[in-house]
Amino acid sequence: MSATSFPDLVLPPDGRQSETARGIQRGALRYLAARGLVGVPEFCLASGRRADIAALDTRGEVWVVEIKSSVIDFRTDRKWAEYRLYCDRLFFAVGPDFPLDILPEDTGILVADMFGAGLVREAPRHPMPGATRKALTLRFARAAAGRLMGLMDPEALRGLAL
Q1: Is residue 81 within 8 Å of residue 71, measured between CB atoms?
Q2: Is the pLDDT of residue 9 over 70?
Q3: Cα separation, 120 vs 123, whole angstroms
Q4: What is the DSSP string of 122-142?
Q5: Listed residue (26, 100, 92, 31) closest to 65, CA to CA
Q6: 17: Cβ–Cβ under 8 A, 6 or more apart, which residues?
């Protein structure tokens, strides 16, 4: 089945992000896909926190990409540090005008716009424990499959916990 088999299956914007953040998200997802990763935007972690993008590579390595659309967004949001528990690599994705020197040195950096992204700094690897990886991978699979099912038949998911 090709991607064109379901041309009408497009997630609507969830309304929480600014236009700038949506553009960064799109570019970051394109970057991830070009590197062979698949991403789930707005991914709910076991802690209840929501990662802007969780991505999985072919070996099962998990990346979390935290989108920052402005300096104010970065300075007022410190929950990103908790994401380290749920990924092997942590990145920030920011717009082209974002001052990169304020981002933590122990994270990766993607500079993105709605057309794509470029890697400025690779994120250091900090492997998750096996049990965390297994639980997160299962959560990732259920979230991705549930979203696809919901696009195909929204009524099928009523009452289903994803």
Answers
A1: no
A2: no
A3: 10
A4: PPPP-PPPHHHHHHHHHHHHH
A5: 92
A6: 25, 67, 69
47, 59 Cβ separation under 8 angstroms: no
Q: For residue range 42-80, what is the model confidence (pLDDT) as tens digits?
A: 999 999 999 999 999 999 999 999 999 999 999 998 899
Q: Is the pLDDT confidence value at 155 over 90?
A: no
Predicted model pTM = 0.87
CA atoms within 13 A of residue 133's CA, in its CB half-sphere: 14
